[in-house]
């Protein structure tokens, strides 16, 4: 049996709120402060950016090799690096804004009328930027679908010759053995651009 002094000490500590939390209690308390839906969207955003970056770099390189045009899409590497870095920073800012806006964090951060007005302005600005980015990524998704349509159209038709000049590329007319090799390499290229399209769609959903 516990002595009377120990019982009094436990009651006193409980009344003063000084009981020792276990690691599980601290973890649950910490997770309650995290906006789980936004955290999941942030993880999906990072996953989409990673797959998009890899798919675009590999797809652009293989497309240049297939079409034998090293100047094709010369700006793609710089664009991918800039867009990926920018989206990572913006995604982290969205996660921070969601964390500050969720309960019970918002009660401690925005606990006055002036701070509450600042919070409303921050949320409105974040929503407007997120909506604008979502529209831009929808347009980018339609652009990334263009190579898929061209390759699938070429493979479905299965003609005896392919004139790359119709699509605005160099290389002339592909026939015979060159055409078979061109189609086999196009199938591998189809996978890369398919990953790019799916990654862009994933980014749109995360936004």
Automatic annotation (TrEMBL):
Transmembrane segments: 39-58, 78-102, 123-156, 188-204
Native source species: Plakobranchus ocellatus
Keyword Transmembrane listed: yes
GO BP field: neuron projection development
Keyword annotations: Membrane, Transmembrane, Transmembrane helix
An example Gene Ontology CC term for this record: plasma membrane
Keyword Isomerase: no
UniProt cross-references to InterPro entries, sorted A to Z: Myelin_PLP
Protein name, per record: Neuronal membrane glycoprotein m6-b
């Amino acid at each position: 049996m516990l002595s009377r002094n120990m019982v009094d000490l436990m009651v006193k500590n409980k009344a003063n709120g000084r009981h020792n939390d276990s690691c599980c209690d601290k973890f649950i308390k910490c997770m309650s402060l995290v906006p789980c839906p936004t955290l999941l969207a942030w993880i999906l955003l990072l996953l989409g950016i990673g797959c998009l970056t890899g798919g675009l770099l590999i797809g652009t390189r293989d497309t240049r090799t297939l079409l034998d045009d090293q100047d094709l899409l010369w700006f793609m590497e710089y664009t991918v690096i800039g867009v990926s870095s920018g989206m990572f920073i913006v995604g982290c800012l969205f996660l921070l804004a969601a964390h500050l806006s969720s309960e019970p964090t918002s009660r401690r951060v925005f606990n006055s009328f002036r701070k509450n007005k600042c919070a409303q302005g921050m949320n409105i600005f974040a929503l407007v930027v997120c909506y604008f980015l979502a529209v831009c990524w929808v347009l980018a998704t339609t652009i990334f679908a263009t190579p898929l349509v061209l390759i699938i159209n070429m493979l479905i038709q299965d003609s005896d010759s392919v004139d790359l000049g119709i699509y605005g590329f160099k290389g002339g007319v592909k026939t015979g053995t060159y055409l078979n090799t061109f189609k086999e390499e196009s199938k591998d290229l189809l996978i890369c651009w398919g990953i790019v399209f799916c990654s862009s769609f994933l980014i749109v959903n995360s936004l």
